Amino acid sequence: MADEAEATAVQETAYTPQQGLSDKERFREVLYLLEEGEPGHARVELSLYLQSQPNSEVGRDLLRQIDLPADEYFPPQYREIELTSGWSLSSVSQHYLGSVFKFHALAKYNGIAEPRKLTAGQTIRVPLTAEARVAFAADDATETQPQMPATEPAEPALEAESPPAAEPADEAQAVSEVEVSAEPQAMPAAEPATPPPQPQPAVEAAAVSAPAAAQVPLSSERVEALHREALNAYRAQDLDRAISLWDEVLAADPDHENARLYRSQAVELRRKLSNLL
Predict the structure, then answer these.
(1) pTM above the 0.70 mark?
(2) Domains of the chain, each with CATH number or no CATH
(3) What residues have CB less than 8 Å from 168, skipping those under 6 apart?
Protein backbone atom coordinates (compact mmCIF):
# COMPACT_ATOMS: atom_id res chain seq x y z
CA MET A 1 0.00 0.00 0.00
CA ALA A 2 2.93 2.31 0.70
CA ASP A 3 4.13 1.84 -2.88
CA GLU A 4 0.72 2.84 -4.16
CA ALA A 5 0.72 6.01 -2.02
CA GLU A 6 4.22 6.88 -3.21
CA ALA A 7 3.23 6.39 -6.85
CA THR A 8 0.23 8.67 -6.35
CA ALA A 9 2.43 11.32 -4.73
CA VAL A 10 4.87 11.16 -7.65
CA GLN A 11 2.00 11.56 -10.11
CA GLU A 12 0.74 14.60 -8.23
CA THR A 13 4.16 16.24 -8.27
CA ALA A 14 4.57 15.69 -12.01
CA TYR A 15 1.10 16.90 -12.95
CA THR A 16 0.03 20.44 -13.82
CA PRO A 17 -3.72 20.99 -13.37
CA GLN A 18 -5.70 22.27 -16.30
CA GLN A 19 -6.50 25.96 -16.31
CA GLY A 20 -9.80 27.71 -16.91
CA LEU A 21 -12.07 24.73 -16.28
CA SER A 22 -15.56 25.13 -14.88
CA ASP A 23 -16.49 23.00 -11.88
CA LYS A 24 -18.40 20.64 -14.15
CA GLU A 25 -15.46 20.30 -16.53
CA ARG A 26 -12.99 19.74 -13.70
CA PHE A 27 -15.17 17.08 -12.11
CA ARG A 28 -15.44 15.37 -15.48
CA GLU A 29 -11.66 15.51 -15.78
CA VAL A 30 -11.34 13.84 -12.37
CA LEU A 31 -13.50 10.95 -13.52
CA TYR A 32 -11.66 10.67 -16.81
CA LEU A 33 -8.26 10.53 -15.09
CA LEU A 34 -9.46 7.90 -12.62
CA GLU A 35 -10.69 5.77 -15.50
CA GLU A 36 -7.33 6.17 -17.20
CA GLY A 37 -5.55 4.85 -14.10
CA GLU A 38 -4.02 8.17 -13.05
CA PRO A 39 -5.22 8.73 -9.46
CA GLY A 40 -2.38 11.14 -8.69
CA HIS A 41 -3.40 13.45 -11.53
CA ALA A 42 -7.04 13.03 -10.59
CA ARG A 43 -6.27 13.99 -7.00
CA VAL A 44 -4.77 17.30 -8.09
CA GLU A 45 -7.86 18.18 -10.12
CA LEU A 46 -10.14 16.91 -7.35
CA SER A 47 -8.43 19.09 -4.76
CA LEU A 48 -9.12 22.14 -6.91
CA TYR A 49 -12.69 21.02 -7.42
CA LEU A 50 -13.22 20.67 -3.68
CA GLN A 51 -11.86 24.16 -3.10
CA SER A 52 -14.77 25.41 -5.18
CA GLN A 53 -17.28 22.78 -3.98
CA PRO A 54 -16.23 21.99 -0.39
CA ASN A 55 -19.59 20.42 0.47
CA SER A 56 -19.52 17.92 -2.37
CA GLU A 57 -20.09 14.52 -0.75
CA VAL A 58 -19.19 12.72 -3.96
CA GLY A 59 -15.98 14.72 -4.28
CA ARG A 60 -14.94 14.01 -0.70
CA ASP A 61 -15.69 10.32 -1.13
CA LEU A 62 -13.62 10.14 -4.32
CA LEU A 63 -10.75 11.67 -2.35
CA ARG A 64 -11.11 8.92 0.26
CA GLN A 65 -11.09 6.30 -2.46
CA ILE A 66 -7.83 7.70 -3.81
CA ASP A 67 -6.14 8.08 -0.43
CA LEU A 68 -7.27 4.94 1.40
CA PRO A 69 -6.06 1.41 0.65
CA ALA A 70 -8.93 -0.58 -0.83
CA ASP A 71 -8.93 -3.01 2.10
CA GLU A 72 -9.59 -0.08 4.44
CA TYR A 73 -12.27 1.47 2.27
CA PHE A 74 -14.10 -1.86 1.77
CA PRO A 75 -14.58 -4.90 4.02
CA PRO A 76 -12.37 -7.94 3.35
CA GLN A 77 -15.29 -10.26 2.64
CA TYR A 78 -16.34 -10.41 -0.99
CA ARG A 79 -18.33 -12.34 -3.55
CA GLU A 80 -17.16 -12.94 -7.10
CA ILE A 81 -19.13 -12.17 -10.24
CA GLU A 82 -18.30 -12.62 -13.90
CA LEU A 83 -18.48 -9.66 -16.24
CA THR A 84 -20.51 -9.85 -19.41
CA SER A 85 -20.71 -7.34 -22.22
CA GLY A 86 -22.87 -4.35 -21.43
CA TRP A 87 -21.57 -3.97 -17.86
CA SER A 88 -18.82 -1.75 -16.51
CA LEU A 89 -17.22 -1.14 -13.13
CA SER A 90 -19.48 1.86 -12.67
CA SER A 91 -22.64 -0.15 -13.23
CA VAL A 92 -21.35 -2.95 -10.99
CA SER A 93 -20.66 -0.26 -8.42
CA GLN A 94 -24.13 1.23 -8.87
CA HIS A 95 -25.93 -2.08 -8.56
CA TYR A 96 -23.98 -3.64 -5.70
CA LEU A 97 -22.44 -0.70 -3.84
CA GLY A 98 -25.17 1.91 -4.28
CA SER A 99 -23.14 4.47 -6.24
CA VAL A 100 -21.50 4.61 -9.66
CA PHE A 101 -18.79 6.76 -8.11
CA LYS A 102 -17.26 3.93 -6.10
CA PHE A 103 -15.77 2.50 -9.31
CA HIS A 104 -12.24 3.66 -8.44
CA ALA A 105 -12.19 1.91 -5.05
CA LEU A 106 -13.71 -1.16 -6.70
CA ALA A 107 -10.94 -1.13 -9.32
CA LYS A 108 -8.28 -0.90 -6.58
CA TYR A 109 -9.98 -3.72 -4.68
CA ASN A 110 -9.58 -5.90 -7.78
CA GLY A 111 -6.09 -4.75 -8.71
CA ILE A 112 -7.35 -3.14 -11.92
CA ALA A 113 -5.00 -0.33 -12.93
CA GLU A 114 -7.24 1.17 -15.61
CA PRO A 115 -10.95 0.84 -14.81
CA ARG A 116 -12.01 1.36 -18.41
CA LYS A 117 -10.04 -1.64 -19.64
CA LEU A 118 -12.20 -4.63 -18.90
CA THR A 119 -12.98 -7.77 -20.82
CA ALA A 120 -16.05 -9.96 -20.96
CA GLY A 121 -15.64 -13.00 -18.74
CA GLN A 122 -13.37 -11.16 -16.32
CA THR A 123 -13.93 -12.05 -12.65
CA ILE A 124 -14.64 -9.16 -10.29
CA ARG A 125 -14.64 -9.33 -6.50
CA VAL A 126 -17.51 -7.33 -5.04
CA PRO A 127 -16.88 -6.34 -1.41
CA LEU A 128 -19.74 -7.41 0.83
CA THR A 129 -20.87 -4.06 2.10
CA ALA A 130 -24.37 -3.76 3.57
CA GLU A 131 -25.63 -2.57 0.17
CA ALA A 132 -23.93 -5.44 -1.65
CA ARG A 133 -25.43 -8.05 0.66
CA VAL A 134 -28.92 -6.69 -0.01
CA ALA A 135 -28.30 -6.58 -3.77
CA PHE A 136 -26.96 -10.14 -3.86
CA ALA A 137 -29.89 -11.38 -1.82
CA ALA A 138 -32.30 -9.77 -4.28
CA ASP A 139 -30.36 -11.22 -7.21
CA ASP A 140 -30.39 -14.69 -5.71
CA ALA A 141 -34.12 -14.44 -5.04
CA THR A 142 -35.00 -13.49 -8.61
CA GLU A 143 -32.43 -15.72 -10.30
CA THR A 144 -32.71 -13.82 -13.54
CA GLN A 145 -29.98 -12.83 -15.92
CA PRO A 146 -29.09 -9.15 -16.30
CA GLN A 147 -30.97 -7.27 -18.98
CA MET A 148 -28.18 -5.16 -20.37
CA PRO A 149 -27.70 -3.73 -23.85
CA ALA A 150 -25.97 -5.94 -26.35
CA THR A 151 -22.37 -5.13 -27.18
CA GLU A 152 -21.97 -2.04 -29.30
CA PRO A 153 -18.85 -0.93 -31.13
CA ALA A 154 -17.24 1.77 -29.01
CA GLU A 155 -15.92 4.98 -30.45
CA PRO A 156 -12.17 5.09 -29.66
CA ALA A 157 -12.08 8.77 -28.77
CA LEU A 158 -15.04 8.46 -26.43
CA GLU A 159 -14.19 5.13 -24.86
CA ALA A 160 -12.33 6.95 -22.12
CA GLU A 161 -15.29 9.01 -20.98
CA SER A 162 -16.24 8.48 -17.39
CA PRO A 163 -19.14 7.58 -15.21
CA PRO A 164 -21.79 10.02 -14.28
CA ALA A 165 -20.91 12.92 -12.20
CA ALA A 166 -23.05 13.64 -9.27
CA GLU A 167 -23.30 17.03 -7.81
CA PRO A 168 -24.68 20.48 -8.21
CA ALA A 169 -26.43 21.29 -11.40
CA ASP A 170 -23.08 21.53 -13.16
CA GLU A 171 -22.17 17.97 -12.33
CA ALA A 172 -25.48 16.64 -13.44
CA GLN A 173 -24.09 16.79 -16.95
CA ALA A 174 -20.67 15.43 -16.20
CA VAL A 175 -21.81 11.97 -16.97
CA SER A 176 -20.57 9.43 -19.35
CA GLU A 177 -21.48 6.28 -20.85
CA VAL A 178 -21.23 5.97 -17.50
CA GLU A 179 -20.69 3.22 -17.69
CA VAL A 180 -17.14 3.49 -17.43
CA SER A 181 -16.75 2.21 -20.88
CA ALA A 182 -14.13 -0.33 -20.78
CA GLU A 183 -12.66 -2.54 -23.34
CA PRO A 184 -9.43 -2.49 -25.11
CA GLN A 185 -11.16 -3.79 -28.20
CA ALA A 186 -13.95 -1.24 -28.16
CA MET A 187 -16.57 -3.36 -26.57
CA PRO A 188 -18.72 -1.21 -24.26
CA ALA A 189 -17.99 -2.01 -20.66
CA ALA A 190 -18.15 -5.44 -19.29
CA GLU A 191 -20.16 -6.32 -16.24
CA PRO A 192 -21.61 -8.97 -14.10
CA ALA A 193 -23.66 -11.65 -15.56
CA THR A 194 -23.39 -14.42 -13.09
CA PRO A 195 -25.36 -12.66 -10.41
CA PRO A 196 -28.66 -11.42 -11.68
CA PRO A 197 -28.19 -7.67 -11.79
CA GLN A 198 -30.53 -4.78 -11.64
CA PRO A 199 -33.84 -4.60 -13.36
CA GLN A 200 -34.01 -2.11 -16.15
CA PRO A 201 -35.43 1.25 -15.16
CA ALA A 202 -38.77 2.01 -16.71
CA VAL A 203 -38.49 3.67 -20.07
CA GLU A 204 -40.17 7.03 -20.31
CA ALA A 205 -43.35 7.07 -22.30
CA ALA A 206 -41.68 9.21 -24.91
CA ALA A 207 -39.24 6.42 -25.62
CA VAL A 208 -41.95 3.95 -26.34
CA SER A 209 -44.27 6.06 -28.35
CA ALA A 210 -42.84 7.27 -31.62
CA PRO A 211 -42.92 10.99 -32.32
CA ALA A 212 -44.88 12.26 -35.27
CA ALA A 213 -41.68 12.36 -37.29
CA ALA A 214 -41.61 8.58 -37.05
CA GLN A 215 -43.87 8.41 -40.06
CA VAL A 216 -40.91 9.40 -42.24
CA PRO A 217 -39.22 6.10 -43.11
CA LEU A 218 -35.51 5.91 -42.46
CA SER A 219 -33.09 3.40 -43.93
CA SER A 220 -31.60 0.84 -41.55
CA GLU A 221 -28.21 2.46 -42.16
CA ARG A 222 -29.56 5.84 -41.05
CA VAL A 223 -31.18 4.31 -37.96
CA GLU A 224 -27.89 2.70 -36.94
CA ALA A 225 -26.04 5.96 -37.61
CA LEU A 226 -28.43 7.76 -35.26
CA HIS A 227 -27.94 5.03 -32.67
CA ARG A 228 -24.16 5.40 -32.85
CA GLU A 229 -24.52 9.17 -32.59
CA ALA A 230 -26.67 8.70 -29.49
CA LEU A 231 -24.04 6.41 -27.97
CA ASN A 232 -21.39 9.04 -28.63
CA ALA A 233 -23.52 11.70 -26.95
CA TYR A 234 -24.12 9.36 -24.00
CA ARG A 235 -20.41 8.71 -23.55
CA ALA A 236 -19.67 12.41 -24.01
CA GLN A 237 -22.02 13.08 -21.08
CA ASP A 238 -24.68 14.84 -23.13
CA LEU A 239 -27.67 12.89 -21.82
CA ASP A 240 -30.38 15.17 -23.22
CA ARG A 241 -29.03 14.84 -26.75
CA ALA A 242 -28.54 11.09 -26.40
CA ILE A 243 -32.14 10.61 -25.26
CA SER A 244 -33.43 12.80 -28.07
CA LEU A 245 -31.48 10.80 -30.66
CA TRP A 246 -32.73 7.50 -29.26
CA ASP A 247 -36.26 8.90 -29.51
CA GLU A 248 -35.63 9.30 -33.23
CA VAL A 249 -34.26 5.78 -33.49
CA LEU A 250 -37.27 4.32 -31.69
CA ALA A 251 -39.64 6.41 -33.74
CA ALA A 252 -38.20 4.85 -36.88
CA ASP A 253 -37.68 1.40 -35.42
CA PRO A 254 -39.77 0.70 -32.28
CA ASP A 255 -38.21 -2.76 -32.02
CA HIS A 256 -34.63 -1.48 -31.72
CA GLU A 257 -33.90 -3.15 -28.38
CA ASN A 258 -30.41 -1.69 -27.86
CA ALA A 259 -31.70 1.85 -28.33
CA ARG A 260 -34.53 1.17 -25.89
CA LEU A 261 -32.21 -0.25 -23.22
CA TYR A 262 -29.55 2.43 -23.57
CA ARG A 263 -32.18 5.16 -23.54
CA SER A 264 -33.67 3.67 -20.40
CA GLN A 265 -30.27 3.84 -18.71
CA ALA A 266 -29.76 7.44 -19.83
CA VAL A 267 -33.17 8.50 -18.52
CA GLU A 268 -32.62 6.80 -15.17
CA LEU A 269 -29.13 8.26 -14.88
CA ARG A 270 -30.38 11.75 -15.61
CA ARG A 271 -33.09 11.33 -12.97
CA LYS A 272 -30.61 10.14 -10.34
CA LEU A 273 -28.21 12.97 -11.07
CA SER A 274 -30.96 15.57 -10.73
CA ASN A 275 -31.85 14.14 -7.30
CA LEU A 276 -28.33 13.95 -5.91
CA LEU A 277 -28.42 17.37 -4.31
Answers:
(1) no
(2) 2-70 (no CATH), 72-192 (no CATH), 205-275 (1.25.40)
(3) 23, 53, 56, 277
